[in-house]
Design a protein that fits this description.
This protein has about 220 residues and is of the alpha/beta class. About 35% of the residues lie in helices and about 20% in strands. The structure holds guanosine-5'-triphosphate and magnesium ion.
Length: about 220
């Protein structure tokens, strides 16, 4: 039997990189910060954004891109608060691709914005590996998930420029060892800022907003 050549397909991330570079270039041209929020399903990303709106609106002009596998529910939550928001629906993919983000990003009124916050699809693994041309990835971890997550899913916590520990109001009811968690984070990403918040009771929200605004003070 004649030997048939096996076709090999790879380097899809190369195609992604082209779109990520387009976003980066446009961001730099328009002087817009883009933050990529990444965390498990239900860790409180959207509620954190809901509670951020009023405080952040007083300081800078921002829009939100909501990433989900299905539904426009998260975008509707922010739209109700008057936020400029679009919904990116991946139809099954576990992370946002740079191509999809680019499509929504170019439609934003970039000349009138200082910051775009992207809520990625709820997932601790895949979005961490995907460049979407962001200024920074921000890891979101709730105390309900357990303190071992940074050690078990280190890529996100290594690549992030900040970590938000959410739902701190639940600390009395869950066995989350904050000291062990912070120790692991230190091993993975020594000097990374860690912000502890409760979107429910409002504690830590000032620190969170200060952290966000610090990005618009740096080169974008
Ligand atoms: N107790 C408490 N509950 C919270 C807090 N933040 C969010 N929640 C609850 O956690 C659940 C999930 O919150 P979301 O904000 O939808 O989480 P998410 O990370 O956006 O979820 P996905 O978009 O599905 O990945 C909701 O029931 C919220 O009410 C908090 O600070 N404290
Ligand atoms: Mg959400």
């Amino acid at each position: 039997m004649a030997k048939r050549e096996i076709k090999v397909y790879s380097d899809l991330s190369g195609a992604n990189a082209v779109w990520a570079d387009k976003i980066r270039k446009l961001r730099e041209e328009k002087n817009v910060v883009m933050l990529n929020l990444i965390g498990s399903p239900g860790c409180g990303k959207t509620m954190l954004l809901e509670k951020t709106v009023e405080r952040l609106s007083a300081k800078l002009r921002f829009a939100v891109l909501e990433g989900d596998i299905e539904t426009t529910r998260d975008a509707e939550r922010l739209d109700k608060l008057g936020v400029l928001v679009s919904q990116l629906v991946t139809k099954g993919a576990c992370h946002l691709s740079a191509k999809l983000v680019h499509k929504a990003f170019v439609d934003l009124p970039l000349d009138e914005l200082d910051m775009v916050i992207v809520e990625n699809v709820g997932n601790l693994v895949c979005p961490a590996a995907m460049d979407i041309g962001e200024t920074a990835k921000i890891a979101v971890l709730s105390v309900a998930e357990g303190e071992d997550k940074p050690a078990k899913y280190p890529r996100l916590f290594r690549e992030a420029k900040g970590i938000v520990i959410t739902k701190t109001d639940l600390l009395p009811y869950v066995s989350f060892n904050m000291r062990a968690c912070l120790n692991d984070i230190k091993q993975i990403n020594g000097t990374i800022p860690v912000i502890k918040v409760s979107a429910k009771d409002g504690s830590g929200m000032e620190d969170w907003v200060k952290f966000l605004t610090s990005f618009s003070e740096k080169p974008r």
